[in-house]
Amino acid sequence: MHLRPLRLETADVSAAESLLRGSLVGVESLEFGPDLSLDISGVRGDDFSVMRLTHSSVARLITGPPGNLHVLEVLRGSARLGVRGVETTLRPGQVIAIDSGSRVRLASDRLSVGIVTLSRDLLAAAADEPSATISFPDHSPLSADWPEQWRGAVRRLNREVLGRSEARGEPRVVADLVSALAVSALAGFAHELQDRHREPGPSAVRRATAFIDQNADQPMTVAEIARAAHTSVRALQQAFARHHDSSPTAYLRQVRLERAHRELLQADPDDGVTVAEVAARWGFAQPGRFAAHYREAYGRLPSDSLRAQPM
Predict the structure, then answer these.
(1) How many whole angstroms separate alpha carbon 109 and alpha carbon 260?
(2) Residue 57 and residue 35 in contact, taking contact as beta carbons nearer than 8 Å
(3) Under 8 Å CB-to-CB from 35, ≥6 apart: which residues?
(4) pTM above 0.85, yes or no
(5) What is the CATH topology of the domain spanning 252-307?
(6) What distance in Å separates the CA atoms of residue 278 and residue 263, rounded to the nearest whole number?
(7) CA of 115: how far to CAs of 34, 154, 169, 250, in Å?
(8) Which residues of the chain have pLDDT under 70?
(9) What is the largest CA-CA distance in the chain?
(10) What is the pLDDT of residue 238?
(11) Which residues touch 117 (CB under 8 Å, ≥6 apart)?
């Protein structure tokens, strides 16, 4: 997965509009007022972007043809959201969804927001359904607890991928965390697929575990595992809980932990092999967290296994 930085500090209205139109697919109209001061920082992948946007001018945005889903968190300031003739004032701490497939108006003045943009293809993969069937009719989260879960997923992406050069090059880490954002968005906001999932039986779990066993060394998302099991993400998670007393991600972590354990035992530390290198290769972005999982599973630190010479 190729990552490109998003960085812009400008008072140039046309430069600001050009960058944001390229990042926020599905925007019909975007306007800034005079005396603009705009600061944008973040990262962009093939089917997602994560950015923080701060501006000191009046701004107006209208979404148009079907494009991406934008999940916004107001960090500072306020904004007015208009959907189907109903206007709502957004305050700091609120998290909302803007579906560019519906007509939405957003007006703000001196605002700082976090914006996560997810493509239709990414959401379709997470839902295991054609993208044309996915729409988000309501901008408010389904529960009061969900925004904190969303913030946690965004923090993990920023901390474990964007802020760590070693992990940033690992496609497994990027794919897993971006997939988690898409799954979280589907769980957090009402969408038309919400009641269409049929629960699979143990055969789907067997197909999923076989796929994981055979492809654990490849970048893998929960959506890809669900497709291999011929079911949806949510249905697969329910089936794992019922038939495996686990989850697809927990099983994937277990398999990768076993493979990393085997590699550490076979490696020679004199060749320059490090625990962090092995951990990142198997999708563990944080060495500390990897060590905790490893010690729980094997009763010792991964560094002890690395120093143990094979017989």
Answers:
(1) 51
(2) yes
(3) 11, 56, 57
(4) no
(5) Arc Repressor Mutant, subunit A (1.10.10)
(6) 8
(7) 23, 10, 23, 28
(8) 1, 22-26, 64-66, 101, 128-133, 160-170, 192-201, 308-311
(9) 73
(10) 85
(11) 23, 24, 25, 48, 49, 50, 51, 68, 69, 70, 71
* Rounded Cα distance, 187 and 262, in Å: 36
Phi/psi at 131 (5° precision): -65, -30
Class level of CATH domain 4-130: mainly beta
Is residue 188 a contact partner of residue 142, using CB atoms and an 8 Å limit?
A: yes
Half-sphere exposure of 296 (CA within 13 A, CB side): 9
Give, in order, the Cα–Cα distances in Å from 58 to each of 116, 156, 264, 305. 21, 32, 56, 59
Same CATH topology for 4-130 and 252-307?
A: no
Domains of the chain, by residue range, sit at 4-130, 252-307
How far is the CA of 37 from the CAs of 17, 19, 30, 52, 136, in angstroms?
A: 12, 14, 15, 14, 32
For position 195, what pLDDT does the model report?
38
The 3-class SS string of the chain reads CCCEEEEEEECCHHHHHHHHHHHCCCEEEEEECCCCCEEEEEEECCCEEEEEEEEEEEEEEEECCCCCEEEEEEEECCEEEEECCEEEEECCCCEEEEECCCCEEEEEEEEEEEEEEECHHHHHHHHCCCHHHCCCCCCCCCCCCHHHHHHHHHHHHHHHHHCCHHHHCCHHHHHHHHHHHHHHHHHHCCCCCCCCCCCCCHHHHHHHHHHHHHHCCCCCCHHHHHHHCCCCHHHHHHHHHHHCCCCHHHHHHHHHHHHHHHHHHHCCHHHCCCHHHHHHHCCCCCHHHHHHHHHHHHCCCHHHHHHCCCC
User: 62: Cβ–Cβ under 8 A, 6 or more apart, which residues?
Assistant: 27, 28, 29, 30, 103, 104, 105, 106
235, 224 contact by CB (below 8 A): no
